[in-house]
Amino acid sequence: MTMITSLLDQMGATLLFLQRILRTMIFKKLKTHEIFEQIWKVTVDSFPTTAMAGFFVGAIMTVQFAMQVKEFGALGYLGALATSATFREVGPLLIAFMLSGKVGAFTSAELGTMKVTEQIDAVRCLGADPIQEIIVPRFVGIIVSSFFLLAAGLMMSVFGGMLLGELFAGVNYEEYLRHVPLIVSPVSILSGLVKCGTFAVVLATICTYQGYATTGGAKGVGRAVVATAVTTMICIVVMDWMTSFIGDIILTMVRGFRP
């Protein structure tokens, strides 16, 4: 019971923190220079990791599907099946995990250090709002950069799949891509992008909250980083299920209204 109560308290505090961020974004002036600086910083630091993760996700999916479709003589559909699965589910999920470990942990550690060394309190003492000055630029920067990093990772997954299709299954790039438009529909691409955006919001909210709420000195910073990594991964999995479930309901409703 105590664990459930603590979990509910954390969820409520995180949602209230998100409410404060959104209210600040709506009613106060945004620090555009700081936002662009954060976008650039996160993108440059995380692009190599995201690109590598996306490349190997596509390669792994191609190898796994090649083992199955080869038995049915359907290697021509290898690229379409691997790309569809990567775009809809596996790619956004695994790449988000990579970003949660790199971007989320770094941001929570940075904000946590600022909190325990009283830098955030100093900003408040100078008459400025720490949410406006420190949190919002990082929140918006993480969302924007994570969204495009996830999208870039999905693009890299196609190249990884093409390379492994050639090396592992003997499928050249023309044959690999030929049937992709038949299975990878605009709905599949939209589903992957929606998941990317959703995971980015989850990551930005949790890492900024954990860093801002850090207490207890250096040990508190360590606890905040661990809590960020664990909570982000759990929430990403839950949101992946929710977006898939809601997406299937919407798609079924749309198909039901067609004449």
UniProtKB/TrEMBL annotation:
Q: What name appears for this protein in its UniProt entry?
A: ABC-type organic solvent resistance transporter, permease protein
**Native organism taxonomy:** Bacteria, Pseudomonadati, Bdellovibrionota, Bdellovibrionia, Bdellovibrionales
Membrane-spanning ranges: 139-163, 183-209, 221-242
* GO CC terms, sorted: ATP-binding cassette (ABC) transporter complex
Which organism's genome codes for this protein?
A: Bdellovibrio bacteriovorus (strain ATCC 15356 / DSM 50701 / NCIMB 9529 / HD100)
- List the Gene Ontology MF annotations in alphabetical order: phospholipid transporter activity
Task: Give UniProt keywords alphabetically.
Answer: Membrane, Transmembrane, Transmembrane helix
Q: Which domain of life is it from?
A: Bacteria
List the InterPro entries. Permease_MalE
